[in-house]
Write a structure and sequence with these properties.
The complex is a heterodimer. Chain A is mostly helical. Chain A contains ten helices and no strands. The longest helix of chain A is centred in the C-terminal third of the chain and has 31 residues, at 197-227. Chain A starts with 7 loop residues before the first helix and ends with a helix. By secondary structure, chain B is α+β, with helices and mostly antiparallel strands. The chains are: A mainly alpha, B alpha+beta. The interface between A and B is large, with 37 and 39 residues.
């Protein structure tokens, strides 16, 4: 029986936590996979990357609502509920040193790291808001909002040239990928997909493989930002823009 | 002539004394404090026999006279769960915790603490009424409400029996909950002038908000797979999806790691999780 005094969260705890679990895979996790895959295409050169970014931006006026509905709001929901979940538990890995208990604690730490990373990362490249006054008076003076979709590779490579960003992104990608891979495993138990201890061990292996592959993809994207020369990329983008103009 | 027996590295020469550190508490809400005791070593001692000696001596290692350390025990064969406490940092039964193996873990002393997630009544005795409240909340029984003879019950086939038997070994000791990072202590203080009934009601209201824990979830799986117990399966799943239900589980899996009866608790949690999701969808569509 749920008392009238319990909080909204407690009264709808089952639904909220199931939605939290689901949102980690769809859309947040699925988006991250696509995002890392698209970004890793930068290793094929500025042209390949620009073509992919064009495909995303072909959404035009739909891009903003799609971003908010399927990316920003789900991430914010997952983060807010996640913080509530962290506060409801009390890690005891120093007393009970079992692997799964370490994974429980790590899932919480990487969740917090991921929140800090994602919010900073979106500020760094996207700027959070695209209102003119915000970009001119706040984001750009702080060195944020670096990315331009029509000069994708060059602005990205330029934005990532500071010495602090690559290690920051490395830690962020690691945390996000661990959180996703381990979250996939806990999700399988939560929803009763892998049930027996043997099944859960096999699932651990499968999730570890998914995590490692995804980390490889993320690392490729990060390396690509470091080996791309902004000037050269700019030239490629300009030529693409001109040839597109010529086609019309 | 036989060669001298080599010293077994896993069992060093027996000590003559055993040092014990006990976390004591004089009553509910009182401050906890450590106390050191020393007892004579005997072969094949368990923690219960250590505690018996400590109670008989009723004095600390420094010779200070103290009230005997309080603890609970029942069966002395690891089937009742009442002597559960935190021994050398790990929750377990004191009857089956053998001194020799504890000294192999830590040769200098044995550390005894009350369970962490239940309110202390005195010293090593805790109030586990929340555990039994959870079993009531989840209707963890077979509903046969008559004294009349009902004839033989439905047959349970062999594979089903083999699924159910391990779950039926649960003795409600509370180890799985004590080690669970998602299970938090709920401790209330009695208010001045509060009657037994008022205090009890207030406690139960607080328990309703807390996590039910692994053992009661596993009991839901057991009774929902029982041919007669099944008749109230929906009610159990309703209770399992309310505040403090199965959703609180964080998959740390300490429960299965510390369970003295090797109950496949995480398997039960996965099965109950699947059933709870399907049940809540059914409720949403049929309400």
């Amino acid at each position: 029986m749920n008392g009238p005094n319990s909080s909204f969260f407690l009264r709808h705890e089952f639904l909220i936590r199931r939605l939290h679990s689901l949102s980690g895979l769809i859309p947040v996790g699925a988006y991250m996979v696509v995002h890392l895959l698209v970004n890793s295409t930068l290793i094929n050169g500025a042209g390949a990357f620009q073509t992919n970014v064009h495909k995303i931006h072909a959404l035009g006026k739909f891009l903003l609502p799609v971003e908010w509905a399927f990316i920003f709001l789900p991430i914010i929901f997952h983060a807010v509920v996640g913080v509530w979940i962290i506060r409801s538990g009390q890690s005891n890995h120093s007393q009970y040193r079992f692997t799964a208990n370490w994974r429980y604690t790590l899932q919480r730490w990487t969740g917090v790291i991921a929140i800090v990373f994602i919010f900073t990362h979106v500020f760094h490249l996207h700027g959070w808001f695209h209102a003119q006054w915000w970009l001119e008076n706040v984001a750009q003076p702080l060195g944020m909002a670096q990315f331009r979709p029509y000069n994708a590779a060059s602005t990205l490579a330029q934005g990532m040239q500071n010495y602090g960003w690559p290690p920051f992104y490395l830690v962020g990608i690691l945390a996000c990928v661990y959180h996703f891979a381990n979250g996939l495993w806990t999700m399988g138990i939560t929803w009763g997909l892998w049930v027996s201890p043997a099944g859960q061990r096999r699932a651990t292996l499968a999730c570890a493989v998914v995590g490692l592959l995804l980390f490889g993809v993320g690392l490729t994207a990060l390396v690509a930002t470091q080996v791309t020369d902004p000037e050269e990329a700019r030239g490629v983008e300009d030529r693409m823009y001109e040839s597109e103009d010529g086609d019309r | 002539m036989s060669a001298p027996t080599p010293a077994n590295p896993s069992s060093p020469a027996h000590p003559t004394k055993v040092n014990v550190r006990v976390l004591r508490q004089d009553g509910p809400g009182q401050p906890a404090y450590w106390e050191r005791h020393q007892v004579d070593y005997e072969e094949n001692m368990n923690v219960i026999s250590v505690l018996q000696k400590i109670a008989a001596q009723a004095q600390t290692v420094d010779g200070k006279k103290v009230a005997p350390v309080a603890w609970e025990c029942g069966c002395l064969e690891e089937v009742c769960g009442s002597c559960t406490m935190v021994i050398n940092g790990r929750v377990r039964q004191s009857c089956s915790a053998l001194v020799d193996s504890l000294l192999a873990e830590n040769a200098t002393e044995i550390e005894l603490r009350p369970m962490e997630k239940y309110p202390v009544i005195r010293d090593l005795v805790v109030d586990r009424s929340r555990l039994f409240h959870a079993l009531k909340r989840l209707q963890a029984w077979v509903p046969v409400d008559t004294y009349g003879h009902l004839g033989p019950g439905p047959r349970i086939n062999r594979p089903q029996q083999e699924e159910m038997y391990p779950l039926s070994k649960c003795m409600s000791c509370g180890c799985c909950m004590d080690a669970c990072p998602q299970y938090q202590k709920i401790e209330l203080q009695r208010r001045p002038g509060e009657s037994d009934e008022q205090y009890q009601r207030r406690k139960e209201a607080a328990y309703e908000q807390g996590f039910v824990g692994a053992a009661p979830i596993s009991q839901v799986v057991l009774f929902n797979s029982h041919p007669t117990g099944k008749s109230i399966a929906d009610g159990r799943l309703d209770a399992l999806t309310e505040t403090g239900g199965i959703q609180v589980c964080g998959n740390a899996q300490n429960c299965v790691a510390v369970c003295p009866k090797d109950i496949p608790l995480t398997k039960s949690i996965a099965r109950a999780g699947r059933a709870a999701t399907l049940h809540s969808i059914k409720r949403f569509l049929e309400k």
